[in-house]
Amino acid sequence: MPPIHYGRRYIRIRGPFHLRVDVRSLAVTLILLGATLALAIFGLMIGTMRLSVHEVFAALSGDAAKLTRTIVVDWRLPRVLAAIVFGAGLAVSGTIFQSLTRNPLGSPDIIGFTSGSYTGALIAMLIAGSTSFIGIAAGAMIGGLATAMLIYLLAFRKGTQGFRLIIVGVAASTILSSLNAVLLLRSKAEVAMTAAAWGVGSLNGIGWAQSVPAMLAVAALLFAAAVMGRPLRAMELGEDAAKAHGIRVERSRIALIAIAVVLTAAPTAVMGPVSFVALAAPQVALKLTKSTQSLAPSAAMGAFLLLSADIAAQRMVPGTLLPVGVVTLSLGGLYLVSVLFRQARSAA
């Protein structure tokens, strides 16, 4: 008996891996990737020294003057690529948590993992006195993973339920935010100001040395998330349905949470906590695809959103490079209010 497609069109890809790709999701992903590419080219053009499209491509191919090549390849390209890769990582992290909790509010910046990464980085900077990228990155990673482990243990009671995970996560996020404020207030003024500025979330001044290790980590974990796509889709149907499909639920959930936490912690270690990309990107992609949550459209939407926000931050105030976190926080706050309003109206 052929499978029932409920009016949706699919493309079957046969080979080492048998895939069935939803046509609408594929089209949305390709459109978003095309828009992101166009934005990336625009991002390489803008700045104190405006460049043409021809100059950008000449710099990328190595045919431009040394100054132009330095501006494009050494200064602007790391920022653009970091926005794309980190945006994709944050979006996939949000998709995983929203799928596991089956709640649009199940996002790492809502349920405490972003705050945990920030706390770890603050401890590395303010208490351990680390100023190196490796030290701060290690602090962010350890803080994110430790927070995830604590929240998971507190939420675990005869299995982990999505709503319980969100409630425990929100409580942990509130406590960690208070702890972060205490750490900043008890530190020296100049150190606290640097840490607070980092805590807004910014891609200003990012270079290859800081971005490459984190981008490689995010790329590897995006592949790992794709490999775990089948258990994730099965668990969206509920634990009983997942077990009926042969999924080891708790083992798969722990693996997915670990992937999602590091997908949040790695970008946070470089640019600081950037809010609401992980919250909004999966839901916007879901509305465009009109399907179940999928990793590829969410990743493409996250890359597009973070790059758009970073370009907007550069252009919003002439002569001033705003942190990208200011833009995402402003827009994300409005989006969060709309989500809460829709949930309240549907529950009424």
Give a quick account of the main beta sheet: strands, pairing sense, barrel closure: 2 strands, antiparallel
Q: What is the top-level CATH class?
A: Mainly Alpha
* CATH T-level fold name: ABC transporter involved in vitamin B12 uptake, BtuC
Q: Which bin fits the share of residues in helices?
A: over 70%
Question: What structural class do you assign from the helix and strand content?
Answer: mainly alpha
- Total strands: the figure is 2
> Per the principal axes of the C-alpha atoms, what is the gross shape?
globular
Beta-strand content estimate: under 5%
Strand order of the largest sheet: 1-2
Rg (CA only): 21 Å
DSSP helical segment count: 14
Describe this structure in words.
This protein is an all-alpha fold. The protein has one domain: Orthogonal Bundle (ABC transporter involved in vitamin B12 uptake, BtuC). It is built from 14 helices and two strands. It has a two-stranded antiparallel sheet. Helix 3 runs parallel beside helix 8 (208-227) and helix 5 (133-155) packs across helix 6 (162-185). It is globular, with a radius of gyration of 21 Å. The model is unreliable at 1-6 (pLDDT under 50). Belongs to the binding-protein-dependent transport system permease family. FecCD subfamily. The chain crosses the membrane at residues 21-46, 80-98, 110-128, 134-156, 163-185, 205-227, 254-282, 320-341. This is Iron chelate uptake ABC transporter family permease subunit. It is a multi-pass membrane protein. It holds the Pfam family FecCD.
